[in-house]
Amino acid sequence: MKSYAIAAILLGTALAGNAALAETTITIESWRNDDLPIWQKEIIPAFEKDHPDIKVVFAPSAPTEYNAALNSKLDAGTAGDLITCRPYDASLALYKKGQLADLSDMAEMKNFPEVAKSAWQTDDGAHTFCMPMASVIHGFIYNKDAFDELGITPPKTVDEFYADLDKIKADGSYIPLDMGTHDQWEAATMGYQNIGPTYWKGEEGRKALIAGTQKLTDPDWVEPLKQLAKWSNYLGDGYQAQTYPDSQNLFTLGRAAIYPAGSWEIPGFEAQADFKMGAFAPPVQKVGDTCYISDQPDHAMGLNAASKNKDAAMTFLQWLGGQDFAQIYANSLPGFFALNSAPVDLKDPLAQEFLSWRKDCKSTIRSTYQILSRGTPNLENATWAASANVMNGTQTPEEAAADLQKDLASWYKPQQN
Amino acid sequence: MSERTPFRWHIAVFLAPAVVIYTLVMIIPLFATLDLSLYSATETGTKFVGLENFRTLFGDAHWAEQFWNAFWNNVWFFLINMAVQNPVGIALAALLSLPRLRFAALYRSAIFVPTILSFVIVGFVWKLILSPIWGIAPSMLAAIGLRHLFEPWLGQETTALTTVALISVWQFIGIPMMLIYAALLSIPEEVIEAAEVDGITGMAQFWKIKLPLILPSIGIISILTFVGNFNAFDLIYVAQGALAGPDFSTDILGTFMYRTFFGFQLQLGDPNMGATIASVMFFIILIGVCLYLFGIQRRLRRYQF
């Protein structure tokens, strides 16, 4: 009996040693099935060129099924070696269950700013469990041809922003601001979270909210809602029933002048639109004010704690944290920006414009994503409804803010006093 | 002693497939759902909590507000269906059964076709028709000079639920129409002739002779509408999304249950609370059906021909 066991161990070691010498195959779990060709044609060949002994398989599933599928694969022990991490609580839960390895000690972590890592850290910031990959930046994309035709320039301040909108509205040939409230998340994500950081001063306000020293009813948090209420004067006819695809099509068909955007729109818009496009950052309140941008970490990669090919997987993660990957990724998917602090040489002009704001503006993340959406009622979902209500005129900004604060305080301790 | 009647095995054998399949896909999941609603997830695993989830659903201010909002929206959704779909369905059936109507088969098929369409198609097509941007509704109204009457109906809290309910009516009007049509056709000629001999014709004939004879069918249609509406989910999900906007004004029990069970965006799914809502839906339907069976069905007079 015993000798069999020893033989088995010896055989196992021999096989493992053999495999390491020859070729190790590592598998990546992901929800980015849209990116499959880019992984197969650009990213994996670049890695395998430097590491011929490691073979990488990118095995994505459908975005809507990813979380459930990944959880059951991890529980059953059949998940891949590398796991693409959703930001915040979904991945934190996996780490807490011991399914994602702690990567805090990796040297490459120093290549990333704190904000980038915050999406994949424990609440105290002591442990990081995923290597940041890409983020999306909010701002406004505009129709350059329309701007030239009307003789207006991209606004720097809020006053200039409304002056431009007034001119577009007076001219009447374009919808000044292209957004609908039907799907609700546009109002919250491209509206509230886009311009909000300017008022609540980015990370400063966001952290104060988490600490409980600021409230959603404070003027800094109500003001973005007031701005959204003002936006509704410049939206298209029947914007209450305008959906997200409607907004995208209106813009790419050249019927609207300004589109409150996320950088993920860039590849799609460039393929569809036959006019010149430009981008401007969320306008500041007064000339000379610091500008803030929402620079939302969107995906990262972690190590399956039960992986049998940890060495090979770590090698891949080290490469992922370096400059080469950042370069390839940002250029093959313009609009998804590498989170690496080192400057990246981007070729797409519109993506360059978005990325350039990182130099002058302070980055922050969407205020509702970290910690504050853990309870019921869920603050993120409540913010969707509140932003849409304010734009539809069914709630005043003050009422909406009071409701949000009430929802949050109902379960979040630091906000209860 | 006479021979004992042998056990009639063939009955069991013939019943078995239906019983087994029905048990597997309906009865076991139903009890599993009821069971699931008695547990709650904690840090250490799930534990039995009795009726605690139901207490949360009705007692916690936030949950109760969401639940009653969904419930009353569901009631309104049902009332619109009852008040529009069934009378119009009966009227259409009465028209179709007129002996001199031309192209009856064509009308019958045309009105019935939406019923066999997928919810996804219906929701998407109506969203497009009513779209203020690409829709044909605004231009059709403009063509008859009534453009000012157009509103983004699906995007306004005051109109969204009624609009979706009317879309549901449009989709399912074929069902009451066909059932009533069949009932009307099954009324024997002698009865109609006898009525005519007595001088009852036209509208009076419909109200005094035909309507009482089709009442049992109307009862069945009402209960089908009730069960269908309190189980509804698909159309709202397709047309308005899982958040059933604007501001939950189109949220019905089905969408509320879906959001709770599977989670939505940053809201993590809670299978136990989801099962609780599903159980409550089951009880609402059970009570409704019982009220109908014992309160109404028994009093309906049936006529044997």
TrEMBL record, chain A:
InterPro entries in UniProt: Bact_solute-bd_prot1, SBP, SBP_1_CS
Record localization: Periplasm
Pfam families for the chain: SBP_bac_1
Record key words, sorted: Signal, Transport
Signal peptide start and end residues: 1-22
PROSITE patterns: SBP_BACTERIAL_1 (PS01037)
SUPFAM superfamilies with a match to the protein in the record: Periplasmic binding protein-like II (SSF53850)
Principal localisation: periplasm
Family: Belongs to the bacterial solute-binding protein 1 family.
Function: Part of a binding-protein-dependent transport system for a sugar.
Protein name per its UniProtKB record: Probable sugar-binding periplasmic protein
Automatic annotation (TrEMBL), chain B:
CDD domains (alphabetical): TM_PBP2
Superkingdom in the source lineage: Bacteria
Keyword Transport: yes
Pfam families listed in its UniProt record: BPD_transp_1
Keywords: Cell membrane, Membrane, Transmembrane, Transmembrane helix, Transport
Domain named ABC transmembrane type-1: residues: 71-294
Family: Belongs to the binding-protein-dependent transport system permease family.
Name of protein: Carbohydrate ABC transporter permease
Organism: Thioclava arctica
